[in-house]
Sequence to fold (384 residues):
Amino acid sequence: MSKRVVKPEDITAKCAAFIAEQLQRPVASVHLDTEFDDFGLDSALVTSMLIELEEWLGVELSPSLVFEEPTVRRLSLAISQRLLEA
Amino acid sequence: MTAEVLAEYGGSARAVQYHYDVGREFYQLWLDAGLTYSCALWDLDDPRDTLERAQQRKIDFHLEASRALTAGAVLDVGCGWGALLSEISRRGRARRLVGLTLSEDQASYVRGLQLPCSEVRLESWTHHQPAEAYDSIVSVGAFEHFARPEDTVAQKIEVYRDFFSRCAGWLSPQGRMSLQSIAYGTMRREEASAFINNEIFPSADLPTLGEIVQAAEGIFEIVLVRNDRLHYAKTFSAWAENLRRRRLEAVRLAREDVTKRYERYLTQSSVGFLMGKIGLLRLVLRPVERKWPVLATP
Fold:
């Protein structure tokens, strides 16, 4: 895994695309400020999203991060912050 | 007794071996030094708390709850790699320590520790016939394996009740039991993850708190029950972090696909506990079929 320079918007787009694909709904309907549990994501999907982000960004993400930063926008910001610090 | 003839009732030997016999070296990469493969007890207010300290705190909890350090004879149902037995041996005064496991690797490892007065049996609780009464019974992370997904709820409760009734019968008058198990939380049985059920813990079904309580009714009184699911979320997260750090070695020991399977299992379990889909129960139990003077003694 190699660390990459990514903007928060890239992470936002990746998360939104993931949720849209998994829940089979248009990306436009995945609001960035909707909380993850309101999308109806289950533990398997949250795990897949974390693993996909980790592999893509080469960064370790604690499962609790999704609960501390429970929207696409907040999670993406937190991850990009972490990438800057890494 | 060979593993093949161990009965399926009360916990499948084949299923247990599938999970635990991946190779001890693999688990050693990401568990604590004592190889404690169950939920720790964290100081959640202390960000500098460590897995080692949290596992020690968990062991201390069970030793105190089951009064194992002052017991003459102790039984550990599902003794894993012997962390609890080792601690009792080091600090207690037991003249008889018995550990049961269905994993051949765990049995030979704990035997290799050569704990004084200890006996490790490759045996299910359903076949156990103690030579004498125990003063203390501990069971951590075994109860999860007792029921099968195809059992009806009534059958599950019957298996648990059978377990409780045997344990109560094996205990001396003042005996205590400490039990720790994962349980369903908000997740219903039908929603259990196919991934965890098929690839990680095949042939096992979790209890609910209600089933445990029903099964214990009239056999044990529940002195204490706590749900420490956030402690397990943190434990799984710590294991995932350890595995990540030692990934190269893990792949060398257990192949890429097995490592990936474990990474997913550790993360998904942590997420499940954070969501409250599953819980982590710790129960302290004392038998109720006792004479008045015993029942009136704390």
The radius of gyration of chain A is 12 Å. Chain A touches chain B at residues 37, 42-44, 46-47, 50-51, 60, 62-64, 66-67 (CB under 8 Å). The longest helix of chain A spans residues 8-23. Helices of chain A lie at 8-23, 36-39, 43-57, 65-68, 72-85.
